[in-house]
Amino acid sequence: MKINKNIIKELTEYLDEFNLTEIEYTEKDVKVKVSKFSGTNIATVKETKSENIKSDNIVGTKVPSPIIGTAYLAPEPGGKKFVEIGKKINKGDTIMIVEAMKTMNHVPSPIAGTVKQICVEDGQPVEYGHTIAIIE
Questions:
Q1: Taking the CB of residue 12, how many other CB atoms lie within 10 A of it?
Q2: CA of 7: how far to CAs of 3, 28, 96, in Å?
Q3: Environment class of residue 102 by beta-carbon count within 10 Å: exposed (0-12), middle (13-18) or buried (19+)?
């Protein structure tokens, strides 16, 4: 994988310019995340598999994130996931948690059905309306 160092440098400059603690940039299957930790900038580069992220080719009800935040698939690190692909769930069952401003917001299933796809990874930032799961 060839990484453009200019992207990391530019993101690092944005941290300081806009007084941010973290910024993330995604292009195709490469995700670059730069975080500020105790005054030091740390860059993380992750290659993602697009089949885990894209939800265009699966039929079902798309469950959107109700808020901007960080998605968590389990109630605690290393804990049992709320749902898994193929699991039957009831309307109102918790699909995952989206943390915003240190508040854990449970995302309920809008319908009863089977989980066809989980469209986010544990700890991934999500935007309002971003598809986080697909239920059929």
A1: 17
A2: 8, 14, 31
A3: exposed
Enclosing H/E stretch for 115: strand 113-118
Distance from C-alpha of 32 to C-alpha of 129, rounded to nearest angstrom: 22
Residue type, 53: I
- Side by side, the strands of the sheet bearing 125-126 are 103-108, 94-100, 69-72, 125-126
pTM: 0.56
- Note down pLDDT in tens along the chain; length 136 residues: 567 788 888 888 887 888 888 888 777 667 777 777 655 555 555 555 444 444 445 678 888 888 888 989 988 888 899 898 899 999 999 899 998 888 888 889 889 999 998 888 888 888 888 888 999 8
